[in-house]
Amino acid sequence: MSQLSTLTYDEAKPEVQGIFDALKKKMGMVPNIYATVANSPSALKAVLQFGETLKQGEFSPKEVEAIALAVGEENGCGYCLSAHTAVGKMVGFSEKEILDLRLVKIEDPKLKALTNLAQAIVRTKGYPSQETVNDFFEAGYS
């Protein structure tokens, strides 16, 4: 069975090496997920552009990471939890806050409504309860 490899810098195409350089500068490393997606330079560019586009939305960097932590927990994805724990620290969450976000036990009512909705969307495959949606709106989201 064929598998995609995680590319090293030297194995990557020149256009990808430039992206790897930018990732190293921004994050201090090239996460394996990007090094694997880099087998297709177009896919890597699309994934990174998608992330940049999301940053232009309503959610703050902390809220984006809160969602990622809650979803990673709901999906049981150790890789995601590890990566977003690191990024969560970069955006200012403490170790305790990160654990609380994963377990939807965060004290901040707005973040709690956000993470509760994120996990409910995953758990119900896109059909959270109306109460959960109402809590999200009542917390101040639009």
Provide an overview of this structure.
- This protein is an all-alpha fold and 142 residues long.
- The protein contains eight helices and no strands.
- Helix 4 (61-75) packs antiparallel against helix 5, helix 4 (61-75) runs parallel beside helix 7 (109-123) and helix 7 (109-123) packs antiparallel against helix 8 (130-138).
- The longest helix has 15 residues, at 61-75.
Layout of helices and strands:
Blueprint: H1 14-27, H2 32-37, H3 41-54, H4 61-75, H5 78-90, H6 95-102, H7 109-123, H8 130-138
Helix pairs in contact: 4-5, 4-7, 7-8
Short description:
This protein has about 140 residues and is mainly alpha-helical.
Radius of gyration from the CA trace? Answer: 17 Å
Shape: elongated
Main sheet record:
none
Query: What is the H/E order?
Result: HHHHHHHH
Number of DSSP helices?
A: 8
Poorly predicted parts: none
